Amino acid sequence: MRLPLARLELTRTGRNKNMYRLRLAVPAFCAALLWLTWEFGTSRRTDPEASAAFCNNLITNAVYAFQLFVAFLYTPLLASETIAKEKQERTLPLLLMTGAREADVIVAKGLSVFLQAEILIFGCLPLQTFNTFFGGLTLEMVLGQQIVLAAVCVLLTSLGLLCSAVSFRPMDALTLTLGGEALWLATGALLDATTLGTLGWGPAFALSAVNATYEPSFSWSGLSVVTFSSLVLAISLCACALYALRRTAHVREPRRVTRRRDFASMKTLDRFPWLRQDPIGRLYAANVSTGGGIIHRWPWWICVLVVSCVLASPWPVPLWPVIVLLIIYDVSSSLSSTHEDGSMELLFVTSISEKGLVRAIYRTHLRRACVFLPSLFLASFVVVGPGRMQPMAGLPEVLPWGIRYAANGVIASVEAWLEAIAYVSLGCLCVSQYGHIARQALYALGWLFGLHVLAGLASVVMSALVAIAIESGARTDIFNSYLFTPGNVVAKISYFFVLVMMSRNWYAIFQRAVEKRWRVGEPLAERSMSRLRALFLESA
Amino acid sequence: MANAISIANLSKRYGQTQALSGLSLEVSAGDVCGLLGPNGAGKTTTMRILATLLRPDIGIASVLGHNVVSNPAAVRPLIGYMPDSSGAYRDMEVAEYLEFFAAAYDIPEAQRARIVDDCIALTGLMEKRDALIDGLSRGMQQRLGLARCLIHDPQVLILDEPASGLDPRARIEVLEVLRTLGQMGKTVLISSHILSELRHLCNTICIIDRGRLLYFGTIDEALKQARTAHRLEIRLTGRPDAARDMLAGLDGVRKAEVLDSHVSIELHDGIEDFSFVASRLVEAGFGVLTIKEEEILLEDAFLRLTDDAQQATHMPPPVPSAPPDRG
């Protein structure tokens, strides 16, 4: 085994300055948050216990959110880029020519990714120990959570390496990795999703990690089971990755098959005027299908089947975010790779107007998102709708149960479709501004959070106004309640309105980017934070 | 002289496409051998097999006596392979990239800096030592690829189109480096489409088409094979058309024509002594300024050999390829 190769990889990846900034910024941010909360908390002197509990919750959620982000998103991002990027840039043969074996490459890449992620997670340990002072979590729980997260990192690194070894582009590898991660989460092996609603992510995760994974009575054995099973699975995945790498390392090009149906129009979707494709759209769709992500090749019924299996499982994870993530990744990966591999230039040299071109691109991605719609609707009717049927104190149930169920399902479905449109716009926007896959994914998530914050604020404000006006007792937690009070109805409508307006605005920004930058050949470049802020304000 | 590269009956198929078909070839140690062929001839496939990156379906290939299929680990340290597309880590600096590969090749740390400096100097990358690879021009990236090939001082260099995409100056410089390497005693197998450049670089060439060997030997021998008859370029005083008419009637002259200000004639096959042309011209009252044998270009030889092969494959029944001339 050539560990020097691992060292080289670490040196190379360690040059990424953002990593150091991130490493420093997060603990600093959390520490500042802690100090501010403690110093300026109104109840510190009057009620120290309440203040400590508040600090505890704040830090717990901030740190765990970051750690979960690193473990569940950053690690797969890094891992899926490794080998596929070497293949894409044709540097893998050069590496293997040095005498390094495939196993060396797997170990080197795996170690560098794991250490990068683990350093960030482990760096939060001092902050987490504050929790023990504030009385929220015990040291045992904190350490247990660190161990589980390390095991998760190992597992997701192995999964990313496997997907990277079988793929020829980082985009495909990332899509596969996230899909695999979603399936793994869907098994409920790690997170007991039923506790999330009541506890919040951080405490739920910590409790789940340390206490029961499958049964509450397991206690510490839950941790052992999770850690052990993750490590065993990781070793198996690494072995598969090694096998896959041996088979694909020397293949020069992925097999590109453009089928006749890639150019054909889908009659079902053509019935909708806003999904209808013109010839340019079909040409673009065919180019995308060879140069982009792979999800669109799944038939819709497979998505429904997967979702049904997850729903039928004893530990249904929140499916909505997973599907949403898949939509965003499909849009961003396919659009950016089509742009980067030069397929887009085939369209740019035609005499088609920019508006027509942008419309063709956008509609194509909307059509690709349609693959997920049946599964989104299913999730809406089976999980989201009924989930919002809980009676709430102080509010009357104005409609019979059956009608409410149907109405909640329909509203959730409409919401799903509108959000899908918004996410397609968001993906297009992110790619039009940021070219690099990791950054693009992060920024996409940033925009996603921004969307929810803004939509939530707008809805809350409007519902509060309506509630004051008609004194109906509208709730601010409207996202969890579809009780048909006038305030909630207006709030939901306002949310839909915000979604539509944001989609329109993001589409307009994407259109401008294509017209002014892409067509004249300006490369996708990293934008500054001020540019991001300006765009955010523009879209808001 | 021992063979540095030895290929026997090599075949490789990609799906329905036969990339190599019974290719046999031997390159002596210290030779600079040019691998020529039209697109899809099998040049890159041959090179990738030699570089241990591809397994042949049938046949044996060995480098310095080591079988590339059964013993790739022994072959890899002995060869420097430069693929047709220069793969590089774009986020690294030039020296850093070379140091990375020096370390990957297990070169002791104490020697790395010196070796990297030597490679950088040899390939003319001194000014770009600390530049990011992403910002390098195509020519500079080709040089970097060459420097990477040399970092572990391999005995055999396998270079796939090292001068492609370069401007004339960069091409000349890269070829100059290759010539130096040839003088240093390295065995070089180089593929290129710029045939005229190979003439001054290689001492042997190998022409393949559709995975078959059409010719292997020295360049002079290839030109001799390609030349079916002498062509003479004659500059003279007097009317060129009158001279042409006179020359066209001579025994041994197949064709005569006026080109620009000179007369060009083609002799019949087998006529090696063309002194009679000058004497007959003088006798006819023409003043002979120069008589020069027209140069057969490597391109002509290449075209003639590949055209012959193409015609042979189109003729039913297929004509077996010519046995390789070892020159």
Short summary of the structure?
Chain A has 540 residues and is mostly helical. Helix content of chain A is 75%, strand content 0%.
Our measurement of the CA-to-CA distance between the termini of chain B, rounded to an integer number of angstroms, reads: 14 Å
Order of helices and strands of chain B: EEEHEEHEHHHEHEHEEHEHEEHEH
The radius of gyration of chain B is 24 Å
Strand runs of chain A, count: 0
Named CATH architecture of the domain at 3-88 and 150-225 in chain B: 3-Layer(aba) Sandwich
Arithmetic mean of pLDDT of chain A: 70
CATH topology of the domain at 3-88 and 150-225 in chain B: Rossmann fold
Domain tally of chain A = 2
Q: Largest interface, counted with CB-CB under 8 A?
A: A-B, 19 and 26 residues
Oligomer: heterodimer
Under CATH at level 1, the class of the domain at 3-88 and 150-225 in chain B stands as Alpha Beta
Strand order of the largest sheet of chain B: 6-7-8-3-9-10
Helix content of chain B: 25-40%
Determine the N-to-C terminus distance of chain A. Answer: 53 Å
Mean of all residue-level pLDDT scores of chain B:
81
Structural class of chain A: mainly alpha
Q: Helix/strand-derived class of chain B?
A: alpha/beta
Shape of chain A: globular
Q: What is the ordering of alpha helices and beta strands of chain A? A: HHHHHHHHHHHHHHHHHHHHHHH
Biggest sheet statistics of chain A: none
Can you put this structure into words, describing what you see?
- Chain A folds into 2 domains: 3-248, no CATH class; 268-539, no CATH class.
- Chain A has 23 helices and no strands.
- Chain A has helices spanning 3-14, 17-40, 48-88, 92-97, 102-122, 125-134, 139-166, 170-186, 196-199, 201-210, 220-248, 260-263, 267-270, 279-291, 300-312, 319-340, 343-348, 354-369, 373-387, 401-433, 437-470, 486-518, 529-539.
- The radius of gyration of chain A is 24 Å and the shape is globular.
- Chain B has 327 residues and is α/β, with parallel strands linked by helices.
- Chain B has 11 helices and 14 strands.
- In chain B, helix 3 (94-104) crosses helix 4, helix 4 (109-122) crosses helix 5 (138-150) and helix 8 crosses helix 11 (298-314).
- Classes of the chains: A mainly alpha (540), B alpha/beta (327).
- Chains A and B meet through helix 1 and helix 4 of A and helix 3 of B.
